[in-house]
Amino acid sequence: MTTAADLRARTKELLAAHPPATTERTAFLRARFDAGLAWVHYPVGLGGLDAPRGLQAVVDAELGAAGAPDNDPRRIGIGLGMAAPTILRYGTDEQKRRLLRPLWVGEEVWCQLFSEPGAGSDLAALGTRAVRDGDHWVVDGQKVWTSSAHVARWAILVARTDPDQPKHRGMTYFLCDMTDPGVDVRPLRQITGEAEFNEVFLSGVRIPDSMRLGEVGEGWKVAQTTLMNERVSIGGSRIPREGGMIGTVARTWRERPELRTRDTHQRLLELWVDAEVARLTGERLRQQLVAGHPGPEGSGMKLAFARLNQEISSLEVELLGDEGLLYDDWTLRRPDKVDFTGREAGYRYLRSKGNSIEGGTSEVLLNIVAERVLGLPSEPRTDKDVAWKDLAR
Amino acid sequence: MNPTTEPHQADLLYSEAEEDLRAAVRALLTDRNDPARVAVRAEEGAPYDAGLWKALAADMGVAGLLVPEELGGQGASHREAAVVLEELGRAIAPAPYLTSAVVATEVLLACGTGGSAASSLLGDLASGRRTAALVVPFATGPEALRLPGGTACMVTAVADAATADVLLVPSTAGLYAVERAEAGVDVAPLVPFDLTRPLATVTLTEEAAAAATPLAGAETALAAVRQGLTAGAGLLASEQLGLAEWCLEETVRYTKERHQFNRPVGSFQALKHRMAQLWLEVVSARAAARNAADSLAAGSPDAPLAAALAQAYCARVAVHAAEECVQLHGGIGMTWEHPAHLYLKRAKADSIALGAPGAHRETVGRLAGLPTPA
After folding, report:
1. Where is the Acyl-CoA dehydrogenase/oxidase N-terminal domain (chain B) (predicted)?
2. Are strands A212-213 and B166-171 parallel, antiparallel or unpaired?
3. Residue B8 above 80 pLDDT?
4. Which has the closest alpha carbon to B83: B21, B27, B15?
5. Average pLDDT in the B242-268 region?
6. Do B267 and A379 touch (CB under 8 A)?
7. Whole-angstrom distance, CA of residue A106 vs CA of residue A380
8. Which listed residue, A66, A86, B63, B255, has the most CB atoms within 10 A of its CB?
9. Which residue from B13, B275, B284 is facing A278, i.e. has the nearest CB?
10. Do A247 and B277 touch (CB under 8 A)?
11. At a CB cut-off of 8 Å and minimum separation 6, what does B354 contact?
12. Exposed, middle or buried, A303 (CB in 10 Å: 0-12/13-18/19+)?
């Protein structure tokens, strides 16, 4: 069993062999991957050491203290949080060897082709078709809400391979090359003015059967791994007090006494309490993970943070008074990562509206908590045994 | 204080020993505490079951968790006492645990155990042979403390005074211990909103004041009482957590069984979402309550903030859980027969006890450096 001391020693060896000050960033990250220190809970040879996940913090702390570069996880979040665990679980040896290293290093960005205009919360209703053609699949359809599609080399894709089956059964999961000529990526402008997401049109895209993940018709099962990892993407590190959006508004409160009113004070205190308790709840979850007893709390953290981000940024805009009437920039930007704190309050207020929609709406997450954590019965279903092609749409 | 630095890294989990303690207390309460009997005893004006207290306090030794072993206690900490309170809250068990084994005990410990009077009293409380009550209105939080000008005084809404053997009476003159049975001590029971926690008006004549045993001088007394109320508020959060947890579990259980429109009512999203929301509040309350218990146990400078934070949050969660429990039970939730009303009354009274959430939020604001407007 790998211990914290082993990891510290290995990290020191890595730093000695590849001093961050004199090593090019990509070269350092590749060396870190090859040393098994990328994600220590992954298998040996695939960037890990089969070590307990909680020990990653030990490596991160050592590397951080030595000023080593990181892989800019926010830029490659979909690859790290969603594609990688799914490839690890369902991928062939060849797929794992080819894809995981450039994914982790950040040389190849990943995006997710799941949602469609007609399949949002009801993802299993998706209609993008994949038809077998010899040792390839030919894909046609439209995907939406695709972050990073304009910079992505690869996509995880779920498509319908058998419309005669009920909706959950006729899907297959693929790894799609975004440089295929049939892939057309168009910016999707949001309420913030920027286009962080895209629409992706797939016309006659040819995917080799070797880039299928899991069995034909098992796409829904494979996608569950992706989605569970999306919602439980709690990091391995502690969040400091006032570490989130509450920190920004608290600083404004301290630095600008002229803005203070009795009403905003009461609301600020309520939100400060809620934010600090949410932070402690995340910290408790982290301690459970480190102790090897993950709790179901992760399912609720996204709900809590969506509400907090929305209410805190709303208060912040109001607190700013005249300045709250202004906006920093409506021009159509194409950011390659989301930055909740880099822009102004008005931006945060608008962007956080997405927090209760993206990655599962808060309403769907409440259903998941109710049914999977509390064991409450599901609503009666009318779509379960109906062929996908016969569903109302 | 710089709010972005945290002097104390709280352990928010339960140890194995704490889980064992929980199992033992829960087994005892399952065996000995019947919510239906609680309501009956409460109406008879005697909610406390002496047998239950003896089993808990004397036989299991949980009354002495905060008291060092050399004074006859268990030498444990607020972490363990918090686990006991979670279980008492869960079972809505009427027992003078919070008032005697936490608040009064903490006050005596903060007086310094050099004096023989405080020490011998602590030994009595730890053994569960006797109980004590702090003579301040039960709604008093650590920040709102106003002491009477002398030991001869009249104080209303004092929790557990009627059953306490000893009254701890703070005033601007200092802290004194008075036997409840002493001449000149009048303890007049009130009709409490929370049937499971007796309240009384305590009146002490000059004669009783003269017979009182001094425990601490004015300055020590004020700090000790404040410390007792802080620990009480911080650990009350664990009682609120246990209470909320029962309300949620019972509501989930009931709505899975109860059928209307040919379906379990718990399958309707309108109800499910409310229970899922409550679940999120309960897991959050657990983090806040453990943080308070651990900070108090460590004697951290962060403890007053942790206690205020926990109380500001958990008080609201307990009330919400009990209100949802009543509503989602429908008609049966409104009856005297179903125990939901006991939980609602306890939750609402607890939210006022030891400082209302608004008062604790103000404390949080002061300690976190978020000043009130000029």
Report:
1. 15-113
2. unpaired
3. no
4. B21
5. 97
6. yes
7. 44
8. B63
9. B284
10. no
11. B138, B139, B140, B141, B142, B229, B232, B233, B236, B311
12. buried
3-state secondary structure of A113: strand
Site of tokens 């657990």: B286
Q: State the ipTM, two decimals.
A: 0.95
Other Cβ atoms closer than 10 A to B198: 27
Q: What is the C-alpha to C-alpha distance for residues A102 and B328, in angstroms, rounded to an integer?
A: 52
In this structure, what DSSP letter does residue A240 have? P
Q: What is the pLDDT of residues A106-162, one digit of tens each?
A: 999 999 999 999 999 999 999 999 999 999 999 999 999 999 999 999 999 999 999
Neighbours of A26 (CB within 10 A): 14
CA distance B322 to B340: 7
Averaged pLDDT of chain B: 94
- The domain defined by B220-367 carries CATH number 3.20.20.70: no
- Kindly report the number of other CB atoms within 10 A of residue B176's CB atom: 24
Instruction: List pLDDT tens digits, range B91-150.
Output: 999 999 999 999 999 999 999 866 688 999 999 999 999 999 999 999 999 998 888 988
SS3 A203: strand
Model confidence at A22: pLDDT above 80: yes
Residues 3-32 of B with CB under 8 A from A: 3-6, 10-13
Strand order, beta sheet including B166-171: B132-134, B166-171, B174-179, B213-216
Among B residues 132-191, those touching chain A with beta carbons less than 8 Å apart: none
Question: Under an 8 A CB cutoff, do A253 and B373 touch?
Answer: no
List, for residues A197-208, the tens digit of each pLDDT value.
999 999 999 999
Q: Residue B52 is encoded by which pair of tokens? A: 């239950």
Backbone angles phi, psi at A203, to 5 degrees: -130, 105
Start-to-end CA span in chain B (Å):
20
